[in-house]
Amino acid sequence: MSIRFDSVTVAYDGNVVLDSLDLTVAPGEVMALLGPSGSGKTTALRAVAGFVRPASGRVLLGGRDVTDLPPHRRGIGMVVQQYALFPHLRVEDNVAFGLKARRTPRAEIRGRVAEALEMTGMAAYARRYPRELSGGQQQRVAIARALAVRPAVLLLDEPLSALDARLRSGMLAELARLHRELPDVSILYVTHDQMEALTLADRIAVMDKARLRACGTPRELYRAPTDAFTASFVGNANLLPVTVTASGAALGGAELTVDTAGAAAGARATLCVRPHLVGLGDGPNRLTGTVREIQWRGSTHRLHVEVAGHPVMADLPELRDPPAHGAEVALHFAPEDAVLLAAGVGGDDH
Ligand SMILES: Nc1ncnc2c1ncn2[C@@H]1O[C@H](COP(=O)(O)OP(=O)(O)OP(=O)(O)O)[C@@H](O)[C@H]1O
Ligand SMILES: [Mg+2]
């Protein structure tokens, strides 16, 4: 079932924390809401669930205006941030909670609880209390509880934030599997973790300061970001302040060949180059600078090089012979691997 924000604005005490959000999640789509703390992600979710009332705008589910409906009549499953399970209830009763609230017949509750626990791999834990479970298992129960109501729309608010990196990547794979089993369920997935968004989402909506900054497929946002904020939030980015020239862009004394996409010569702009697309040594779009920092990361080396007063990061396959601290090195990148952004570094975008 589709989820649509139609110019939704939410304010607390006159403070706008969600500003005219327009966004549509297609039926069966996984949309990640990605953004820094306080950008309005949870608020957007709460507006869909019905826990907060928009000051203006409408929320539509499957084309139906639900703005005035109470939460339990919206057909939504939600996993809240910090997945609050009821500590005094066994796993099975936690999972049954939403069904009881909806006055589902008892016999049906039993079947649905079993099904939801089965899907999340928690069938063997039905009689336990939350305190007898690991963090990852509690997480699964929270998801089972949301699935038990057979929602057409699933809202997940940082569902994996309490887990360590290993468990998180396991749960990510589980969520992807769950979605394959429930292909019609639309998922709105809040995270501030770009890896989660890149891995799981069909599209990513980037939030910043109560506003939607950009929305697109992970690939679009990664390969062709439209603004500096999105570039640095979806993946790592070198953001270089350049001046547009007749044939490309200039950084310090270096003349670079890049697609200026019609920007006027003389204009200030930001050049986005992904660190893993920066090479060491001579090549097209050569930059020279001083090595300020070398980090060995197992399979890669990250070089921090100061170029004309600006930091440039290069992620390189592990170097046999890494340059010394303070050495002068040349870096390069292919013209097609750079994206020119209109906004200046340090301007309104930061
Ligand atoms: N009940 C409330 N009363 C007043 N202000 C609130 C309330 N809930 C949220 N806010 C404010 O609204 C803004 C957006 O909050 P929200 O919870 O949507 O952010 P978020 O993007 O989910 O952040 P995080 O990543 O930290 O969870 C914040 O500045 C927050 O302080
Ligand atoms: Mg939040």
UniProtKB/TrEMBL annotation:
One of its GO terms (molecular function) is ATP binding. The keyword Ribosomal protein does not apply. Residues 3-234 form the ABC transporter domain. InterPro entries: AAA+_ATPase, ABC_SmlMolc_Importer, ABC_transporter-like_ATP-bd, ABC_transporter-like_CS, Mo/tungstate-bd_C_term_dom, NA-bd_OB-fold, P-loop_NTPase, Transp-assoc_OB_typ2. PROSITE patterns: ABC_TRANSPORTER_1, ABC_TRANSPORTER_2. It comes from the Bacteria. The keyword Nucleotide-binding applies. Gene3D superfamilies: 2.40.50.100, Nucleic acid-binding proteins (2.40.50.140), P-loop containing nucleotide triphosphate hydrolases (3.40.50.300). Keywords: ATP-binding, Nucleotide-binding, Transport. SUPFAM superfamilies: MOP-like (SSF50331), P-loop containing nucleoside triphosphate hydrolases (SSF52540). This is ATP-binding cassette domain-containing protein. It comes from Streptomyces similanensis.
